[in-house]
Amino acid sequence: MAVKVEELLTADINQPARYLGNELGATHKPWDEALVRWVLTYPEVYEVGASNLGHIILYNILNAGPRQLCDRAYLPAPDLAAKLRSTKTPLFAVESRRSLTEFDILGFSLSYELGATNILEMLDLAGIPLTWQERATNCQNGQMPLIFAGGQTATSNPEPYADFFDFIALGDGEELLPEIGLILAEGKTNNLSREALLLDLAQIPGVYVPQFYDMAADGSVHPNRPQVPERILRRVATPIPAYSIGLVPYVQTVHDRLTVEIRRGCTRGCRFCQPGMLTRPARDVEPQQVVEAIEQGMQATGHSEFSLLSLSCSDYLALPAVGMEIKNRLKDKNISLSLPSQRVDRFDDNIADILGGTRQGGLTFAPEAGTQRMRDIVNKGLTNEELLRGVKTAVDRGWDKIKLYFMIGLPGETDEDVVGIAETVRWLHRECRLDGRRGLNFNLTISNFTPKPHTPFQWHSVSTAEFSRKQKLLKGEFRGMRGVKVNYTDVRISAMEDFVGRGDRRLAAVVRRAWELGAGMDAWWESLDQAYKAWTQAIDESGLTWKYRQVESGEWNLFEKEEEKEEGSSATDSVTDVTDVTDVTDVSPMEVGRREKEEGRGKKEEGREIKEDFFTSGPLPLSPSPSLPLSLDQPLPWDHLDTGIDKNWLKIDLQKALEAATVPDCSFEGCSRCGVCGTDFGHNVVVDALPIPEFAGEFVPNTERKQRLRVWFGKVGDMALVGHLDLIRLFDRVVRRADLPISFTGGFHPNPRISLANALPLGVTSTGEIADFELTEPIDIESFREKLAAKLPENIPIYKVESIDLKAPSANQLLEAAEYVITVASAGSLTENGELDRENAAPVSVAPDANWEAWVKAIVETEAFWRVHTTKSGKTQNVNLRERLHKLELVEQKPDSSTRASGATSEGRAVLRFIGSCRSDGNLLKPEHIVFMLEQVSQQEIQLLQVERSQLILGYG
After folding, report:
1. How far apart are CA 763 and CA 947, in angstroms?
2. Could you report the per-residue pLDDT of 278-335, keeping only the tens digit for each?
3. What is the pTM assigned to this prediction?
4. pLDDT tens digits along 886-930
5. How deeply is 50 buried, as exposed, middle or buried, from its count of CB atoms within 10 A (0-12, 13-18, 19+)?
6. Per-residue 3-state assignment (H helix, E strand, C coil) for 906-953
7. Is 789 exposed, middle or buried (CB count within 10 Å of its CB: 0-12, 13-18, 19+)?
8. Which residue among 122, 367, 514, 672 is least crowded, i.e. fewest CB within 10 A of its CB?
9. Contact 276, 88 (CB under 8 A)
10. What Å distances lie between residue 475 and 406, 467, 752, CA to CA?
11. In the chain, count of helices (H) and strands (E)?
């Protein structure tokens, strides 16, 4: 049963178009014809989720399957979430508008350690029990959908969230999700129980069902039944660019462009980088597929910008050739290309040639560290010479603002390395001076390193106290440096990420309690204080405060141990070469600390309290490999996940980090023996560099004006909830899709010559809007109308098109007045009802003595209604609203349901028509002004229930 969304999306809901599900590219499949009904539930606000490439690809793939229906849901903003709770309305899918409980399966994207609280928020809003245990019990009273998660965090370490999901999808979903759909269809047909269905799903490679596994005392995870595999395989799929063409939201999203993946996976081997480890092997997309997807996608979506996506776009050797081919094909379309953060060592003139367009975008590089020693430790593979050459190339090609990413808190980092960040920026400033232009500006982001599972640094311990100290050190170094803006990641976010990201199943209770205490949207700055307070209280209540303190002060540092070794410390305190064999028979310091903690002694050793190990609560086994400390050989909560990366290789690579030894990129040099390449995961697929096509020239905006057409159109139904700026973007994209010969403005940022006469307030319908279009060549009016109407949404009808003299004033300049039809109601005397009810759109109590005809007559006969008006500049002035009212009449009186019930004879609601000033100089009469005048003459509270603008009136002189 559909939720009445239109009743929820009232004027107090911000950006209501988020929740309409009527975007271009939305798939509305018949509900009754589907056997399996999915919802891809993205646990972020719409602007983030709707532009996520993985979300779009999986949505398109699932809807391409027979008898499979896929809808979408997003985390509602706080205003709608509050209304859902106050009205007891369940969270709904945006296209079918059905409650999430009506679907068979909900798939959440978990790509961020702290994102699980948003997932719990969505489940609660949907009325779905939060854990698989509760859902299994609840199924006795009605079937609950299966809840699963995918994404980078879910693939790397799902254990802190295991209680919340029926299963986890590991790795790429393009092939995995359709396989899951087939099992679900078979299970529904055979009426399988929930447990039997999950057991079938567990046989699919890439599906991890946590309830079929138990956590041992040492933190390791093992099957609790013989029918499931001991280790679950990560899935690998080949990118399919055609599925990237899809949703075109009406509201402006975070990534408001067409995005096409050109390379999946990265083999650079940066030791801090989890995506680089979890997406191997590298798979290049065939250049022809990329070019065709971009060309078709730009035509189908109407976007003015596209992005080529990869963890390392510069390692796609065909990038210059592909970029130039696309740029040549779209040279007359005013299209721009953007790339994510690039390898500065590969940035050259060939890549600079393809970037930007008429709108040159920003440029982002990630040196990560400020000294060569640190870049070698993390295996960045970047020298100072390469860094300087890349930045100089950017400056020579016209960029005067460059964004740089650095990290602090990396293993082995010293204060000299931290200060090296500032020295590197100072050096680049000095070496890359701009001749005859304004100074070079750097926008720096300094993030805090947090160790990630499945990386060589997964054993390292960070210290948030050190983060704070190093941030303070850097702030001192940058003080007074001109042309540099520095942003620092909040230490509290890093602490929470590290605490959760490497945890085990015991943290599920912490995550749930943090959500109950108000944690959510933790990455958004406005929520950070509340989230941090909630997390710390949840940690305190869980009894795991000792573990969090390790994040604050640092449990141990691999590099400090190595330094002690070099100074002659004992073998038990050092990390030695993995090929050494050193007899270790003593119990580890962490085991001593555990025993002392149990005995309540809380002893100190060398000035610090020994804490329990980060991951385990039970006794720690002695190391099976005496060459390494216990913390490298002990089980980890994610060891049962087979990502392809050999754990022993991670230890070897960690040893190389200790030696500041680099490992080459195996896509272009010899195999690094990481363990991925083989039958289960495939091999690196690298496309060779291609000849670069000759540049056909930059886009030259056609500023000729051969014809002006004036269009009268409507904005009805749910399109009334699309804002004015979003409507302007919509027309831009419609003109592109319709391939109309639109004229452009000149200058550095040419825009199509489309002019809307007046901004319509959000939520107001209209049958009388006007827009002017200027064309570079004459076109038949009917042909123009047909092409435009074919690409416009159904609820933006075209009523009339006229040819206008090119020298004539625009519709905006000619605008004199507007006609509105409004529905109003009397809610009793102002003293009884007050202002608060009207502002909050509370239900009205209709006055029994409403006399609309007399009130309208009184307004018409009154000479002045004075009201204070505040201008945009903040100045106030008294305005006579009556001078702006041209005509007012009573159209209809409607008995209100409340008056009928009470037996009152008066008419509670009225439909009024008025014509008032509507000029571009700010001389306006709004529907709210009519309400003000009605209240003045009636001394009643008048509520504005509905507004429609029926026409805009132009003054042709």
Report:
1. 8
2. 999 999 999 999 999 999 999 999 999 999 999 999 999 999 999 999 999 998 888 8
3. 0.89
4. 999 999 987 755 444 333 334 589 999 999 999 988 899 999 999
5. buried
6. CCCEEEEEEEEEECCCCCECCHHHHHHHHHHHHCEEEEEEEEEEEEEE
7. middle
8. 672
9. no
10. 14, 12, 44
11. 33, 31
DSSP 340-407: SSB-GGG--HHHHHHSBSSS---EEEEEE-SSHHHHHHTT----HHHHHHHHHHHHHTT--EEEEEEE
Beta strand pairing status for 441-448 and 401-408? parallel
Q: How far is Cα 302 from Cα 738, in angstroms, rounded to an integer?
A: 9
- The string of DSSP codes covering 428-496 is HHHHSPPTTSPPPEEEEEEEEP---TTSTTTT----HHHHHHHHHHHHHHHTT-TTEEEEE--HHHHHH
Beta strand pairing call for 305-309 and 909-917: unpaired
684 close to 281: Cβ distance less than 8 angstroms: yes
Please give the full DSSP string across 92-154, using - where no structure is assigned. B-TTT-BBGGGSSEEEEE--SGGGHHHHHHHHHHHT--SSHHHHHHHGGGSPPPEEEEESHHH
Give the span between the Cα atoms of 11 and 840, in whole angstroms: 9
Tokens coding 573: 């305190």
Sign, CA torsion 86/92/96/100? negative
Phi, psi of 899 (to 5 degrees): -75, -35
Give residues with Cβ within 8 angstroms of 940, minimum separation 6: 826, 827, 828, 829, 830, 847, 850, 934
Alpha carbon distance 172, 644 (integer Å): 14
Whether the ω angle into residue 281 lies within 30 degrees of 0, i.e. cis, is yes
The predicted-structure confidence for 355-406, as pLDDT tens digits, reads as follows 866 566 779 999 999 999 999 999 999 999 999 999 999 999 889 899 999 9
Q: Name the token pair of 396.
A: 């020579």
Vertex 184 angle, CA 178 and 188, to 5°: 150
SS3 44: coil
- The residue type found at 899 is T
Contacts with 611 (C-beta within 8 Å, 6 or more apart), sequence order: 546, 547, 549, 550, 555, 590, 593, 597
- Alpha-carbon distances, residue 617 vs 216, 249, 367, 544, 595 (angstroms): 10, 48, 39, 10, 11
Q: Residue 274 to residues 279, 394, 701: CA-CA distances in angstroms?
A: 9, 29, 44
